[in-house]
Design a protein that fits this description.
Blueprint lengths: L1 H18 L14 H11 L22 H7 L5 E4 L4 H9 L3 E6 L2 H16 L3 H9 L13 H9 L5 H18 L6 H17 L13 H5 L15 H12 L3 E5 L7 H11 L4 E7 L9 H9 L8 E5 L5 E5 H8 L3
Parallel strand pairs: 1-2, 1-4, 2-3, 4-5
Antiparallel strand pairs: 5-6
Helix pairs in contact: 4-11, 5-6, 5-8, 5-9, 5-11, 8-9, 13-14
């Protein structure tokens, strides 16, 4: 009996090692040069695509509900993948990946993330970040460790400053074009300006320009349903983690179709070449929009380096946010 049990344990272990071979420590960089960062964006990205809804901020009220389970399930470090705007920063703050790829079909979302990158780099703390993102003067009472409630109460009463918005736009453009030497086109600069001025006009309370957004303050003050706020602006530590990734060029925004030929696969190959796995892939409800090209999507996901702990973060309108195993998805699809 004991011999049979021991043999069964060995067979199980061999099966696990066959499906998910052991890996040496990954070789993901601690920092990317500006040239390498832009080359990655240029080489991995696909042509600008169309999405029928205007999404500038999240509309997912349940986005934090999975975070306690997520930090218990997914391994820290490794690589993060996501889609859409700023909710990705909250997931990154909790998971602390070494590197992240944000993939969206719209070039405007890639440009929004470059705008965010510049704002993070310009902003020493959370109060500066909100001031620089929304073109409001920093209220004198705010400190580096002010609560997120105090932060947004203060900015809800602050007045938009048009001259400040123009100064910030010049600083953002100079940082991206001159300091980083990213060769943005005139159209890219125009589109960044349009996105930035949307934040200026809307302010922190409401965000009518983005589909069903609860407003920036609402998103940043939500909780996981048990009273804990994990947002990237909820604490100095969360903010500093995301800012450090931006400062080291380790949040890479790409233009890509989830069923497209390049973005998902090339970013995956980069991770594979560095011995890294995708620990988390936040896909929101993208799958609702790609039913007609599902086989290509499934093949793209099957090309990713994953392990037994790798998970999707999925969201459904009118429902909630939940986790699902990427490895189970790949097995179930039986991709050829």
């Amino acid at each position: 009996m004991r011999l049979r049990m021991a043999l069964a344990a060995i067979v199980t272990l061999l099966l696990v090692l066959t499906v998910f071979p052991s890996r040496a420590a990954d070789t993901l960089p601690l920092q990317l040069s500006d040239a390498a960062y832009w080359k990655m964006i240029s080489d991995f990205s696909e042509p600008d695509g169309y999405f029928q809804l205007e999404i500038i901020t999240s509309n997912e009220a349940s986005y934090q509900y999975v975070l306690l389970q997520l930090v218990r399930t997914a391994k820290p470090g490794g690589a993060y993948r996501g889609v859409g705007p700023g909710q990705n920063f909250t997931y990154m703050a909790a998971l602390q990946p070494k590197m992240a790829f944000l993939i969206d079909i719209r070039r405007d979302m890639m440009l929004e993330h470059l705008m965010y990158k510049a704002v993070f780099e310009m902003s020493a703390d959370r109060a500066d970040f909100v001031a620089n993102l929304f073109s409001r003067k920093r209220p004198a009472q705010l400190m580096a460790d002010s609560s997120v409630q105090s932060l947004f109460q203060a900015y809800a009463a602050a007045t938009a400053d048009r001259m400040l918005s123009e100064e910030h736009l010049k600083a953002i453009t100079a940082r991206l074009n001159a300091a980083h030497r990213f060769p943005l086109s005139d159209d890219d600069v125009r589109r960044i300006r349009s996105i930035y001025l949307t934040f200026f006009r809307e302010g922190v309370v409401s965000f009518y320009s983005s589909f069903r957004s609860p407003g920036y303050a609402g998103l940043m003050m939500m909780t996981d349903g048990a009273g804990r706020n994990w947002s990237f602006l909820a604490s100095k530590e969360n903010y500093d983690r995301v800012r450090a990734l931006h400062q080291n060029n380790l949040i890479v925004p790409l233009v890509g179709d989830f069923a497209g030929p390049r973005a998902i696969r090339m970013a995956g190959q980069y991770l594979r070449d560095h011995g890294a796995v995708v620990n988390v892939f936040y896909i929101s409800n993208v799958e609702d929009y790609i039913q007609g090209v599902w086989p290509s999507y499934a093949r793209n996901l099957a090309s990713l380096p994953v392990d037994a702990s790798s998970v999707f973060i999925r969201w459904s309108p009118g429902s909630s946010t939940w986790l699902a195993s990427i490895a189970d998805f790949i097995r179930a699809e039986n991709v050829r």
